Amino acid sequence: MPGHVARLEDWYEALYATSHGRDGRWYVSTRPDPAAIARITAAVLADAAVPATTDLPAGVEAQTRGDLLFLINHKPHPVSTPHTGRDLLTGEHHDPTTLPGYGVGALDGGGIR
Q1: Helix, strand, coil % in the chain, rounded to nearest 5
Q2: Which has the higher per-residue pLDDT, 19 or 57?
Q3: How many angstroms separate the Cα of 66 from the Cα of each of 40, 46, 50, 97, 109?
Q4: What domain range includes position 72?
Q5: Pair (41, 74) in one structural domain
Q6: How far is residue 101's CA from residue 13's CA, in Å, rounded to a whole number?
Q7: Cross-referenced Pfam families, in alphabetical order (predicted)?
Q8: Do 66 and 103 belong to one domain?
């Protein structure tokens, strides 16, 4: 993690990572485009050993708590995600999971097919 990760020019640090003991810090001193934000987020998650949930449709949020995966659809229309598992809210098994508009799911296991 330590040191300059990316620079826009020789004098301007665009992304800097540092660590002190167990703690780490990432500094972004620019306004990255969405693709760069995705790459930076992936690097930060990997550095922190946090598993990332990928392939989510726009407007879907995912949170993990232990073995549970919570999915939240912030859009008014139904969406499908590649996640499988038993929804603790309905008792149904999903493969894949379809969330209704503004719907939520709480998957036990929350695997990706």
Answers
A1: 10, 50, 40
A2: 57
A3: 24, 18, 12, 19, 9
A4: 60-112
A5: no
A6: 41
A7: Glyco_hydro_42C
A8: yes
